């Protein structure tokens, strides 16, 4: 049996931009992506701490060490710059494998979106 488990999480980062006139996705600082073991095009869930909104989208890498967290396209209607969000990716794995799996979870500085 396979189950879906948390693979990676960027816990509490500040939204730096919301670009409605874009195809779609979330732009994430490449340094945060690397620290959380996330890749370009990966599906992620976004949880907005400020308003409770939840949505799924995919990752576009942003400039490394820029602190950029931008929601693009329709997702831009679900956030405002300054909102705090949690970014979560999931993976499918065998039930027994999942028992010993440890997700990559990072806790950036919430004000600057940089790794501490």
UniProtKB/TrEMBL annotation:
Cofactor(s) required, per the database record: pyruvate
Subcellular location, principal: cytoplasm
Subcellular location(s) per record: Cytoplasm
Family: Belongs to the PanD family.
EC number(s) given by UniProt: 4.1.1.11
Active-site residues, record numbering mapped to chain: 25, 58
PANTHER family from the UniProt entry: ASPARTATE 1-DECARBOXYLASE (PTHR21012:SF0)
Processing after translation: Is synthesized initially as an inactive proenzyme, which is activated by self-cleavage at a specific serine bond to produce a beta-subunit with a hydroxyl group at its C-terminus and an alpha-subunit with a pyruvoyl group at its N-terminus.
Protein name: Aspartate 1-decarboxylase
Cofactor note (record): Binds 1 pyruvoyl group covalently per subunit.
Modified-residue entries (Pyruvic acid (Ser)), positions: 25
UniProt pathway: Cofactor biosynthesis; (R)-pantothenate biosynthesis; beta-alanine from L-aspartate: step 1/1
Cytoplasm is among the record's keywords: yes
Keywords, in A-Z order: Autocatalytic cleavage, Cytoplasm, Decarboxylase, Lyase, Pantothenate biosynthesis, Pyruvate, Schiff base, Zymogen
Gene Ontology biological-process entries: alanine biosynthetic process; pantothenate biosynthetic process
Residues that bind substrate: 57, 73-75
Its job: Catalyzes the pyruvoyl-dependent decarboxylation of aspartate to produce beta-alanine.
Keyword flag Metal-binding: no
Gene3D superfamilies reported in the protein's UniProt record: 2.40.40.20
Subunit: Heterooctamer of four alpha and four beta subunits.
InterPro entries linked to this entry: Asp_de-COase-like_dom_sf (IPR009010), Asp_decarbox (IPR003190)
Substrates-to-products reaction catalysed: L-aspartate + H(+) = beta-alanine + CO2
Taxonomic path: Bacteria, Pseudomonadati, Bacteroidota, Flavobacteriia, Flavobacteriales
């Amino acid at each position: 049996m396979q189950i879906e488990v948390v693979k990676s999480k960027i816990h509490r980062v500040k939204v730096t931009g919301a670009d409605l006139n874009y195809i779609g996705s979330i732009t994430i600082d490449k340094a945060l992506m690397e620290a959380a073991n996330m890749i370009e095009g990966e599906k992620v869930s976004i949880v907005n701490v400020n308003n409770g909104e939840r949505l799924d989208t995919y990752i576009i890498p942003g400039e490394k060490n820029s602190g950029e967290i931008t929601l693009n396209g329709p997702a831009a209607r679900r956030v405002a710059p300054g909102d705090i969000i949690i970014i979560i990716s999931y993976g499918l794995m065998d039930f027994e494998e999942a028992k010993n799996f440890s997700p990559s979870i990072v806790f950036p500085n919430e004000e600057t979106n940089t790794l501490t």
